Amino acid sequence: MATARDLMHTGCTCVKSNDTAANAARMMAELDVGSMPICGADDDKLHGMVTDRDLVLQVMAKGHDPETYTVDQLPQRHLILADANEDVNNTMAKMKEHQINRLPVIDQGRLVGIISIADIANRMPESVTGDVVGSIKS
């Protein structure tokens, strides 16, 4: 049985919960990613996710100063997670059901990786990739 750990990529960089929106945007630009996990400044546990869309709609469009507005001030949606040891079919079902392009993977509350559509495309058969991608609206 393949698990979420088998599908995920490791080496995720977190933005700390007390980092500013501007710093989160700079980190995303440097890493060439559209979202990042938010980890606690003190406990390193996963607190949420921040997307480039969040930064535009919740910070810039609302007139907040991105140099002082911290990512922990962003409204957080219910965080959908994969446990590192769960069956990969359950993981992909979550992505489809919740329309998620990137799914954080945790082990004992700590972030250990992320599964993206690209991970599915690189590690799963074409038919499985097509099913998942076709189920997630842009």
Kindly describe this structure.
With 138 residues, this protein is an alpha/beta fold. It has helices at 4-7, 21-31, 52-60, 88-98, 117-123, 126-135, and strands at 15-16, 35-39, 46-51, 82-83, 102-107, 110-116. The longest helix is centred in the N-terminal third of the chain and has 11 residues, at 21-31. The radius of gyration is 15 Å and the shape is globular. The mean pLDDT is 91.
Task: For this entry, give a set of tags.
alpha/beta, three-stranded mixed beta sheet, 138 residues
Short description:
By secondary structure, the chain is an alpha/beta fold.
Give, in order, the helices and strands: HEHEEHEHEEHH
Number of strands: 6
In the predicted model, the low-confidence regions spanning at least 5 consecutive residues are: none
Number of helices: 6
Largest sheet: 3 strands, mixed
- Computed over alpha carbons, the radius of gyration is 15 Å
Mean of all residue-level pLDDT scores: 91
How much β-strand is present in the residues? 15-25%
Q: What is the percent of helical residues?
A: 25-40%
Strand order of the largest sheet: 1-2-3
How far the N terminus sits from the C terminus, by CA atoms, comes to: 30 Å
What order do the helices and strands come in, and which of them pair?
Elements: H1 4-7, E1 15-16, H2 21-31, E2 35-39, E3 46-51, H3 52-60, E4 82-83, H4 88-98, E5 102-107, E6 110-116, H5 117-123, H6 126-135
Parallel strand pairs: 1-2, 4-5
Antiparallel strand pairs: 2-3, 5-6
